[in-house]
Structure prediction request, 65 residues.
Amino acid sequence: MRHMAALTRGREGREMAEIGFLMDAGAIAFSDVEHVTRDTKVLSRCLTYARSLGALVGAIRKTRG
Prediction:
């Protein structure tokens, strides 16, 4: 089993989570699940940092219905 952790603190989309420390603890992927990170600066920072560490970042698309 592999672990996934939050991309931002508390999945609030305001501040990047400690991706490096979470990877050291065993996380291989990061996502805020259904909570969308609306701040493009925060999202860009998260994606850039995750890429430099070789971490996966995932998103879940909500469908209407």
Residues 3-57 form one domain. The chain has a mean pLDDT of 90.
